[in-house]
Design brief:
The structure is a single chain. This protein is 46% helix and 15% strand. The protein is α/β, with parallel strands linked by helices. The protein has one domain (3-268): Alpha-Beta Barrel (TIM Barrel), CATH 3.20.20. An eight-stranded parallel β-sheet has the order 2-1-8-7-6-5-4-3. Bound molecules: ligand LLZGTKA7. Keywords: Decarboxylase, Lyase, Pyrimidine biosynthesis.
């Protein structure tokens, strides 16, 4: 099933626009887990505990690769597909390179890791994004207005009378989205810009990090980011869910945090 189909099914049938981010920090993995398999077991427990409330899972590539744990990432994505087959996996790798190399990054994301979607940096332009978008059943989620303060250094530069992030939103909506499988990353920490992007791109899915640990306001995010039909958002939270508990009950604590976040999103969407 395509990324778009899976995502829309979770929005509608599971009534959730919460994306559970999986950013494992080796220093915060509870000590009781078996040392030889702690990373996988930590992630597996989080996935099982939060799946009911997730429209997507978003493993962050560097959090695995920095530990030399790419095989654990493969194993985890396989596990999600097998145990929770209706929930799409967004590989947050923020790739960006010339087209010939991008073809291999796309194969890495979609064939090696079996991700349903991948995050991509637009800085290298159309030919650097096309190799991902050519996989028509996969999602390509392009950085637009990131959640960090430093994003303004470039994303607010004037680009023919509009800030660069709006130019990126227009480019993607009008030119790069020939297969209808593109989305954009827009931070919850900037609701005014989120609203502007929504106006520009219509119903395109927006991946929205920045609630939870980064302090973005859920109500402002939902009001700014939803489509006319009240969907269109993949609102991501990682640390606030992963580390809601510190001890043996970390799965239960993550489930409570995920449910509370999902409910807050839905309450704001009334
Ligand atoms: O603009 C962006 C783009 C990506 N991210 C990623 O999302 C999560 C956020 O984690 P939290 O713990 O919920 O703050 C993380 O993987 C970032 O790499 C982002 O924050 N902002």
């Amino acid at each position: 099933m395509s990324f778009n189909t899976l995502l829309r099914s979770r929005w509608t049938n599971a009534n959730t626009m919460l994306c559970v981010g999986i950013d494992p920090d080796p220093h915060r993995i509870p000590a009781h887990l078996p040392r030889n398999d702690a990373l996988f077991q930590f992630c597996r427990v989080i996935v099982d505990a939060t799946a009911d409330y997730a429209c997507a899972f978003k493993p962050q590539f560097a959090h695995f690769a920095a530990q030399g744990a790419e095989e654990v990432l493969e194993e985890l994505i396989d596990y999600i597909h097998n145990a929770h087959p209706g929930i799409p996996v967004i590989l947050d790798a923020k790739r960006g390179d010339i087209g010939s190399t991008a073809e291999y990054y796309a194969r890495e994301a979609f064939e090696r890791y079996r991700a349903d979607a991948v995050t991509v940096n637009p800085y290298l332009g159309a030919d650097s994004v096309k190799p991902y978008a050519d996989h028509a059943d996969k999602g390509v989620i392009i950085l637009c207005r990131t959640s960090n303060a430093g994003g303004s250094d470039l994303q607010f530069l004037d680009c023919g009378g509009q800030p660069l992030y709006q130019h990126v939103a227009r480019l993607v909506a009008e030119k790069w989205n020939a297969n209808g499988n593109c989305g954009l990353v827009v931070g919850a920490t900037f609701p005014a810009e989120l609203a502007r992007v929504r106006e520009i791109v219509g119903d395109m899915p927006l991946l929205i990090p920045g609630i939870g640990a980064q302090g973005g306001d859920v109500i402002a995010t939902v009001k700014a980011g939803r489509t006319a039909g009240g969907t269109g958002m993949i609102i991501s939270s990682s640390r606030a869910i992963l580390y809601a508990g510190k001890g043996e009950d970390f799965g239960a604590a993550a489930r409570i945090a995920a449910k509370a976040t999902r409910d807050a999103i839905n309450d704001a969407n009334t």
